[in-house]
Amino acid sequence: MIRALILTLALLIAGPVFAVQPDEILEDPVLEERARDLSANIRCLVCRNESIDESNAELARDLRVLVRERLVAGDSDQDVIDYLVDRYGEFVLLTPQKTGSNFVLWYAGPAVFLLALAVAIGYLRGRQNAKEAAVSELSEAEEDRLKALLKD
Amino acid sequence: MIVELGHFALIAAFAVAIAQTVVPLVGAHKGWSDWMALGRPAASLQFWLVLFSFGALTYAFVTSDFSLQLVVMNSHTDKPMLYKISGVWGNHEGSLLLWVVILALFGATAAWFGNQLPPTLRARVLGVQGSISVAFLAFILFTSNPFLRLEFPPFNGEDLNPLLQDPGLAFHPPFLYLGYVGLSMAYSFAVAALLEGRVDAAWGRWVRPWTLAAWLFLTIGIALGSWWAYYELGWGGFWFWDPVENASFMPWLIAAALLHSAIVVEKREALKSWTILLAILAFGFSLIGTFIVRSGVLTSVHAFANDPERGVYILGILVFFTGGALLLFAIRGGAMEAKGVFSTVSRESALVFNNVLLAVSCFVVFIGTMWPLIAEMAFDRKLSVGPPFFNAAFTPFVIGLAALLPLGAVLPWKRADAARAMKPLWYALALAVFIGALVWAMQTGRSAGGPLGAGLGVWLVVGAGVDLYLRTGQKGSLSQRFGRVVRLPRADWGKAVAHAGFGITIFGVAALMAWEQEDIRVLQVGESLTVGKYEVVLEDVSRVEGPNYLSTMARMHVYEDGRDIDVLFPEKRIYPVAAMPTTEAGIDNGFWRDVYAVIGDPQQGGGWAVRVYIKPFANWIWGGAIIMSLGGVLSLSDRRYRVAAGARRRREAAAQGVPAE
Q1: What GO terms in the biological process aspect are recorded for it (chain A) (predicted)?
Q2: Least confident of A96-100, B120-124, B127-131
Q3: ipTM above 0.90, yes or no
């Protein structure tokens, strides 16, 4: 009885429909390749943090099919992206666009790197020209103990 | 009864932690040695109390005590014993308790093994460590109490999230927390040093073992998480740049920087205030990670227990500890004067560049992780930052790091001649370029990543070998050198092994991303598909009943060039109690490649959807990580860190040697 119940339950729950399905794949390998590359950059909107290429959700499947339909209709990659952004907002893109405030995101890393490099070089110059501190802040006993510790 | 005792022990631990914070800190400030001395027994007692409390909760899970709300929500009588135990930390409350156990454990080790620490420093370290315990114990007791009882206990539980019922994930959190929370020691040492107003070479040596331990556990924890994602999520991704993954990766990057800058403090008494800052940031990022995982401000594949109210509390802890320490740093940090003088080309400056690259790469991960939040709040843009951004923005820094590493590792201290230091490395570089070019010529695609990864990998591994070779001195026959290399300090071995492991991981990642092959087909039972030189035959699909799940299990035979090499059993499971499906990939693990098979849905026209991937060098990714942490273990076992024991023995020997007068 319980076993039958569990089995019915199991049948009711859909199994994991995984990522790209065989029936979605396009005949033309070049178009399919483009579709896969595009899909890796498009977010499954109902999932937590997956691209439609990886996701098992129904919506992801619909979007994968949609991307392929647009490609077959002759859209360029950019056309497909524009179409999706138009419909779902830029939230749908996993690669943030390099427009407006997103410049901060894209260039913060390189900018901070240059800044850190400048600071580091300034510091190293300073170290090179510094004089070895003559007077130790440590008491004599501490200095001895430190030496004993560091000897090992 | 045991559960009530556990609850009581937790409250007692809270009281002890308050005492551990206040008494030693006041004692150290006033110079009262009896007050300072309280830190050690208090840290020890706090640990045993928290451990007992954790044991009590584990007991409730093992005996399936369904009068406890937490057990009801995360366990089930049919669940295998391993997952009953791992269920203890597979939820918000229990994992927080584990957090506190590890926090107290690290505090207690400072009490047990800190004989060589000056009393005031030790008192302050234990006091600061105690204050972190106070904050988290209060958090548990007031908002996330794991010991809440139910008035009407149900017959059975609701089962643990099936994704978590997996050996890889059972041990992932404890390792991750050992790493996260271990960084609290570096933090406590940093704040204690700021309170003391002094950082010297000895401080650099004391803080290193704890940082090293935290870093190596974090390495293992991250590797386990990545490995789990690889075989469990069903398409063999190993890293998603997911907020939760980034949350563990940022402290790892900072801890790696801290390890290296602490060497400069120890050997050369320079970079002091920077090292203090890194120690504060490392734990700060741990807290940020805790906040990200538990507050739900960022969406993620593996976030659990999202609760805004708790989020606010963790934010409070984060602001108090990081902000407080940074304020203290701003006031006191300037007083730490550097002593060592060195030239612009030297080991010191190589380590400075290591720190620049690691810190900036951490910053890139940080801004990428937080940007969706910033953009929404500041610019009203709802957007996503996904793997393509991180791959583009993060990778250049790793390449830079890997390119500089072998040279930096062999530069002499103080003053170096780059051309001379490079001399023994020319062979390694030539070999790396040669291998890279060879791979470029041999590969079918035109990806630059594969050859670059191969070249960098060779450069790092051979460079590590050259580093060891150079440590054996200028002269000597090969056999003499061999004898010397075996007797080198473990720290030298640790360094070389960890650097080589880094190279292996880089190569594994590059190779997998460049040369993966896949095929997706509908197969009737008895049909086969071919990927590269592998043929996979779908022989059978059957329904199998597991202890607490139902499975659709396929049997697939794998042939390599017509030779029978393995039988795989990929599964699709359904956990009826939790009403959740999972995929279990069938993987033929190999040294050179994995054959990765997944069974999908039955098709309308008959047959099954089948996916097969060839994943070249997949295991090198985690193998490299394990080798890196092995390097950490070697370094940690170096006798310099057991100096306390050695010094004690010497003192005793000296005492016996002095003749009685």
Answers
A1: cytochrome complex assembly
A2: A96-100
A3: no
With a CB cutoff of 8 Å and minimum separation 6, the contacts of B10 are B49, B50, B53, B97, B137, B140, B141, B147
CATH code linked to domain A13-92: 1.10.8.640
Q: Is B383's CB within 8 Å of A102's CB?
A: yes
Of A44, A89, A86, whose CA–CA distance to A64 is shortest?
A: A44
Query: How do the domains of chain B map onto residue ranges?
Result: 1-160, 518-616
Q: pLDDT tens across B45-95, in order?
A: 999 999 999 999 999 988 888 888 888 888 888 888 888 888 888 888 888
pLDDT at B497 over 90: yes
- State pTM to two decimals: 0.88
Element (H, E) at B557: strand B550-560
Q: Which residues of B touch A54 (CB under 8 A)?
A: 233, 235, 237
Residue owning tokens 């092959």: B517
Task: Please list the residue range(s) of chain A that carry CATH number 1.10.8.640.
Answer: 13-92
pLDDT band at B441 (very low <50, low <70, confident <90, very high): confident
DSSP-assigned states of every residue in A74-113:
T--HHHHHHHHHHHH-GGGBSS--SSTTHHHHHHHHHHHH
Among A39, A94, A146, the strongest candidate for a mutation testing the B interface, having the largest count of B CBs within 10 A, is A94
Q: What is the CA B139 to chain-centroid distance, rounded?
A: 24
Nearest CA in chain B to A106: B393
What is the rounded CA–CA span in Å between residue B48 and residue B13?
Answer: 9
